[in-house]
C-alpha cells in the first residue's frame, strides 16, 4: 500500500485558516506569532532561553508550503484543530482532538516515539527501509532517522507516517515542558 501524499495544498489551507483567524481578530502576523508563543506563557517564563516562534515561520507557509511538525503544533493549538483537519481529502475531522495543554506546557510531537513505532511496524511487515520509503514516498534515511531525531521532521513526512501506521497524529502528540 502506498500512502497518498499529504496534500501539498494543506500548508496553504493551514495558512488560510491562520489568516482568517488573524483577520477576524484584527491582528498582524507579528501579533499572531506572539499569541502562539504566549499560549505557553508560564513555560516560557521558566525557560527564558527558548526562542519564540517567528513571524516568518508562519508566513513562510504561504510561500514555501513547508514547516516542521513542532512549529505546526503552535499554530494548530491556536486554531484548536488537529493536523488531520488539513489533509486535503475533504473529510471533516470531528473525532480527533489535540491534547489539552495549559500555559505551563507546549504541544510537542514525539518524533522518536513515532520513529520507534514505525520501525517496529516495518519489522513486523518484513520491510526494509528502502521498501518502506517506497510505500510512504520519501527517502529511506528520512524514515530511519526519525528514531534518533533531536527535534523534528517536516509535517508532510510526519503525516504520511501516521497515515501509513493507521493511527491519529495525536498518538504522537503530547504536552511537553520543553
Automatic annotation (TrEMBL):
GO molecular function, one term: DNA binding
Alphabetized InterPro entries for the sequence: Lambda_DNA-bd_dom_sf
Protein name as annotated: Uncharacterized protein
Organism for this UniProt entry: Flexivirga caeni
